[in-house]
From TrEMBL:
Domain of life: Bacteria
Matching Gene3D superfamilies: P-loop containing nucleotide triphosphate hydrolases (3.40.50.300)
Protein name: IstB-like ATP-binding domain-containing protein
IstB-like ATP-binding domain location: 9-82
CDD domains: AAA
Entries under InterPro entries matching the protein: Chromosome_initiator_DnaA-like, IstB_ATP-bd, P-loop_NTPase
Length: 82
């Protein structure tokens, strides 16, 4: 059985755009769930939560550590950008 890291390719962003109520969040969660079930490390967060966490980390001089923690995941799902 192959592991996800063997097939690692250059990271590419994916942005889901559409009107409210069209299933973007549902699709994002489904993609993250499938990736996790396939063995990838996945983190789901809201954009506002991520920004607040980064601002707090910067205030506490922990920004590099926080960014590194996010960098260890294979798939970062950020929801509610708008």
């Amino acid at each position: 059985m192959s592991t996800p890291s063997r097939h690692r390719k250059k990271a590419q962003p994916l942005c889901l755009i559409g009107d409210s109520g069209t299933g973007k969040s549902h699709l994002l969660i489904a993609l993250g769930t499938e990736a996790a079930m396939a063995g990838f490390r996945v983190k789901y967060t809201l954009a506002t939560k991520l920004v607040n966490e980064l601002v707090e980390a910067a205030d506490e001089k922990q920004l590099s550590k926080t960014i590194a923690r996010y960098g260890r995941v294979d798939l970062l799902c950020i929801d509610e950008l708008g």
